């Protein structure tokens, strides 16, 4: 009888824990600023992510972070005095620079009109130039003030800024100053009949020295 009672209590406790877990899952995240720490092969970059002004974009970035998606991706695009871009490519077993599969994750809608500008040291969501709502995992960090990226492109808007570098800008600038390949080849996606196909292209922005994103973590900013 005692064993049954203990078992029943344990069972009730288990159900209570499950109910609490489900309740916690439904809790609204009211965090307005997240701090992200990006560990790279060239140093650590710390970012503050503005969830108050760019909620959907920050939440999208955080999903990739929490899934570990960014581990071993690269900063694959370096344009001196302009931007460094990463978060979407890695090296395959043949040493080729190829897109990393984003799985079934959907692209997100632009938040380019949130009031945040492409100032030096800001992080923004990369997307197709001709499709405003096509941002997924890739991002770029501005090396200078890039007002042109705030202006409407053919797709109808600029690019969505969702945070800024707070520590490690010297790391970003070091990446931005790397020597570039003269024989760089990147497998780039393009749209064909509503399908994504891939072709190898020679590019002038691939750094000679691989810049690997080893890990990104994020947590709510602590007050004070």
Description:
By secondary structure, this protein is an alpha+beta fold. The protein has a single domain (31-181, 208-220), classed as Cyclophilin (Beta Barrel). It contains 3 helices and 12 strands; from the N terminus they run H-E-E-H-E-E-E-E-E-E-E-H-E-E-E. The protein has helices at 2-25, 55-66, 169-176, and strands spanning 33-40, 43-50, 73-79, 83-86, 89-91, 97-99, 122-125, 139-142, 161-167, 185-192, 195-202, 212-220. The protein is globular and about 50 Å long.
- How many strands, what sense, and barrel or not for the largest sheet? 8 strands, antiparallel, barrel
Overall body shape: globular
What is the CATH-assigned architecture? Answer: Beta Barrel
* Number of alpha- plus pi-helical segments: 3
Integer average pLDDT? 90
Unreliable spans are 1-11
Provide a quick synopsis of the model.
The protein is of the alpha+beta class. 20% of the residues lie in helices and 33% in strands. An eight-stranded antiparallel barrel has the order 1-2-9-7-8-4-3-12. Strands 5-6 form a two-stranded antiparallel sheet. The chain has a two-stranded antiparallel ribbon with strand order 10-11.
């Amino acid at each position: 009888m005692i064993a049954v009672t203990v078992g029943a209590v344990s069972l009730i406790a288990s159900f209570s824990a499950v109910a609490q877990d489900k309740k916690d899952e439904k809790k609204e995240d009211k965090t307005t600023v997240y701090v992200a720490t990006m560990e790279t092969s060239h140093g650590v970059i710390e970012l503050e992510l503005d969830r108050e002004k760019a909620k959907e974009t920050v939440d999208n970035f955080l999903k990739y972070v929490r899934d570990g998606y960014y581990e071993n991706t690269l900063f694959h695009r370096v344009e001196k005095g302009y931007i460094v871009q990463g978060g979407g490519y890695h090296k395959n077993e043949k040493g080729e620079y190829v897109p990393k599969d984003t799985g079934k994750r959907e692209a997100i809608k632009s938040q380019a009109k949130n009031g945040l500008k492409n100032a030096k040291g800001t992080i923004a969501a990369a997307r197709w130039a001709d499709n405003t709502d096509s941002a997924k995992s890739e991002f770029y960090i501005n090396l200078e003030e890039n007002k042109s990226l705030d202006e409407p492109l053919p797709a109808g808007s600029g690019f969505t800024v969702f945070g800024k570098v707070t520590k490690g800008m010297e790391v970003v600038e070091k990446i931005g100053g790397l020597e570039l390949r003269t024989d760089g080849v990147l497998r780039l996606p393009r749209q064909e009949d509503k399908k994504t196909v891939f072709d190898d292209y020679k590019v002038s922005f691939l750094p000679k020295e691989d810049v690997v994103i080893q890990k990104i973590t994020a947590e709510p900013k602590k007050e004070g």
